[in-house]
């Protein structure tokens, strides 16, 4: 149990540092598309290489290939693009707080997909999160970048759809295999996007390679691997609640390292958003969240680790 708690908390801290790493990467002249391509290319190489050495890549059916292509190359890539765009345009702390609208959205979407009654436990989390959102955003005419805010909210919506769909179609694969192929397809999407729009440019300052590696290794490979360890031991719901340390780390890191500040109403709104997120996690039925170490529970977490 202690091992699972420590692994989950370290994972959350690693995820929480990602907006700060991205901010520094942008400072070297790196574009959003380039950073995401490097992030997923490095992560995919590590995950696929590790599975290949262990002989665990396995054979996928045509339907599994198509599903992973949709999830990784489409939905996960879109969510990442929106989130990293938000980090570039608004304060990283604000971006991560807005992202945490997704647990409430997941509870509503799950009820719709499962065709269950919209009880207070379903509607309540999203209403609480929206109330917090009004405090976090405040007055849009007060110098806040509206496209950046919309990108962060769009990332939350995209991530909610990704989780709801992915948890129902990827249960036949282990989380390690799923993650490896998701990152591979996301790499392909950003390579194509960069070539089509001309957004790929390796002419950034040399320090950018270090920040891109930090995003890929610390905030992707290490963070995801440790989340799987925690979720396998604790179960997905308890691990997800402990992962609420992520936005706390993101806000503190932005304050200490970037000098960014949020107003007291924004901090209060962030706390309300996170309260709605915890409620949404508790209200969402998670398939396979049985005993610690249950393989079914581990598989469910394959698509519910943080972005």
Automatic annotation (TrEMBL):
Similarity comment: Belongs to the EamA transporter family.
Transmembrane domains' residue ranges: 32-53, 65-84, 90-113, 120-140, 146-165, 177-197, 209-229, 241-258, 264-282
Listed Pfam families: EamA
Membrane topology according to the record: Multi-pass membrane protein
CC annotations in GO: membrane
Signal peptide coordinates: none
Subcellular location: Membrane
Protein name (Swiss-Prot/TrEMBL): EamA domain-containing protein
Keywords: Membrane, Transmembrane, Transmembrane helix
Domain EamA: start-end pairs: 3-137, 147-278
Origin species: Streptosporangium roseum (strain ATCC 12428 / DSM 43021 / JCM 3005 / KCTC 9067 / NCIMB 10171 / NRRL 2505 / NI 9100)
Tree of life domain: Bacteria
């Amino acid at each position: 149990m202690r091992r699972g708690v420590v692994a989950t908390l370290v994972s959350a801290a690693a995820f929480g540092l990602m907006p700060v790493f991205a901010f520094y990467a942008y400072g070297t002249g790196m574009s959003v598309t380039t950073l995401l391509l490097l992030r997923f290319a490095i992560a995919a190489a590590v995950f696929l290489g590790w599975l290949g050495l262990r002989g665990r890549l396995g054979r996928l059916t045509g339907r599994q290939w198509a599903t992973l292509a949709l999830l990784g190359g489409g939905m996960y890539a879109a969510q990442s693009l929106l989130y990293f765009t938000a980090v570039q345009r608004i304060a990283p702390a604000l971006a991560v707080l807005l992202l945490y609208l997704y647990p409430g959205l997941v509870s509503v979407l799950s009820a719709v997909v499962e065709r269950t009654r919209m009880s207070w436990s379903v509607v309540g989390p999203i209403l609480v999160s929206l109330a917090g959102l009004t405090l976090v955003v405040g007055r849009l005419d007060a110098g806040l970048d509206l496209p950046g805010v919309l990108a962060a909210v769009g990332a939350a919506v995209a991530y909610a759809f990704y989780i709801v769909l992915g948890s129902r179609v990827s249960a036949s694969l282990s989380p390690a295999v799923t993650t490896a192929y998701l990152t591979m397809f996301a790499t392909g999407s950003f390579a194509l996007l960069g070539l089509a729009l001309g957004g790929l440019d390796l002419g950034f300052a040399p320090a950018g390679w270090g920040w891109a590696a930090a995003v890929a290794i610390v905030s992707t490979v290490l963070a995801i691997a440790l989340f799987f360890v925690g979720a396998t031991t604790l179960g997905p719901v308890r691990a997800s609640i402990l992962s609420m340390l992520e936005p706390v780390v993101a806000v503190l890191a932005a304050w200490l390292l970037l000098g960014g500040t949020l107003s007291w109403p924004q901090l209060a709104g962030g706390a309300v958003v996170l309260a709605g997120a915890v409620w949404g996690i508790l209200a969402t039925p998670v398939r396979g969240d049985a005993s610690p170490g249950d393989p079914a529970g581990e598989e469910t977490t394959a698509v519910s680790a943080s972005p």
